[in-house]
Amino acid sequence: MGFVATPSDPNWPSGASLLVKTPHPERRNVGLLGIPTFATSVTPRSAGDTPGAIRSALSRFSTWSFSDDVDLADHVALVDYGDVENPDGHDGFDRVRDAVAAFDEALDLRMILGGDNAATWHALRAIGGGSYVGVGLVTFDAHLDMREGVSNGSPVRQLLADGLDPEHVVQIGLADFSNSAVYANRARELGVTIISRDELRRSPVEGAVARAVALAGGGGRRVYVDVDLDVADRSAVPGCPAAAPGGLSADELRRMVRAAAAQRSVFAMDLTEIDLSRDSSDERTVRLAALLVLEALAGVTRRVP
User: Are 210 and 200 in contact (CB under 8 A)?
Assistant: First the structure.
């Protein structure tokens, strides 16, 4: 009989094998928490289980990084803290706060799986305990998220109103025809640093990420990185309602996430803005999100002990 393929191969561990319930004492530990916000989205969307879909998609990939010649399974553990139930509902923020409080102090990185971009406000507000002293923010986003009201279009404005220092907020990937002059001028007047999509075309994305993290983390601040997948080209992320043609390539976004996670000052990162009901049949948006989780883990392995 000839060779018959089997669904399980001990010589090919999948990314899902990195998921554990408790921190590993001999590896770098990255916490994973789902905050599936959706109810206040500017574009109505489904309440599909995006965090669960991303976890499942990890099984599509291995733990081996050719670029770094590193097997993540030898160096990193992905500690699963579950999902926050109904974060948009009554007392939803209290549930987010309680879930974040369960993070182990020794985590190298905390990863939040949205949900729409409202998850960013929930997560950073909860992690900061109501104070943003010593915290900076970097966003990878086509949008400024400076809208009025409370929605997935307003987390940056909400965080600034809560006390986040705009001098330590850097927004990367802002797209043409995806923002307004009013909000762009407001962000600049407040002192937010903006690195547009056009600027990214002129130099390697790793340089822009290093600059952004240095600005956001100035003065010894810890840096939260918000990765809104609609910063990518719409062909790569059909599951992102607001993604437009001409955004970042999947490769650029993967490199940016790995570069950001490699910075020791980056203590938390989120992945947001996926609507499962809009994704393509090949699940390309969710699969890219799963790859970004692995890219973040690979970035953590680059950190100097």
Answer: no
Measured from the Cβ of residue 133, the count of other Cβ atoms closer than 10 Å reads 9
Spans of all domains in the chain: 15-301
Residue 227, beta-bridge partner list: 140, 271
pLDDT tens digits for 182-208?
A: 999 999 999 999 999 989 999 899 999
Residue 44, SS3 per DSSP: coil
Architecture of domain 15-301: 3-Layer(aba) Sandwich (3.40)
Task: Render pLDDT for 228-270 as a digit per residue (tens, 0 to 9).
Answer: 999 999 999 999 999 999 999 999 999 999 999 999 999 999 9
What is the C-alpha separation between 28 and 205, in angstroms, rounded?
Answer: 26
Spatial distance between the Cα atoms of 37 and 52, rounded to a whole number of angstroms? 13
Sign of torsion over alpha carbons 91, 93, 95, 97? negative
84, 75 Cβ separation under 8 angstroms: no
C-alpha span between 292 and 284 (Å, rounded): 12
In Å, what is the CA distance from 170 to each residue of 55, 174, 254, 255? 29, 11, 19, 18
CA angle 303, 163, 88 (to 5 degrees): 85
The crossing angle, in degrees rounded to 10, of helices 155-162 and 118-128 is 20
Residue type, 71: D
Q: Where are the alpha helices (DSSP H) in the chain?
A: 50-57, 92-101, 118-128, 155-162, 181-190, 197-200, 205-216, 250-261, 284-301
Q: CB within 8 A of 199, min separation 6: which ones?
A: 208
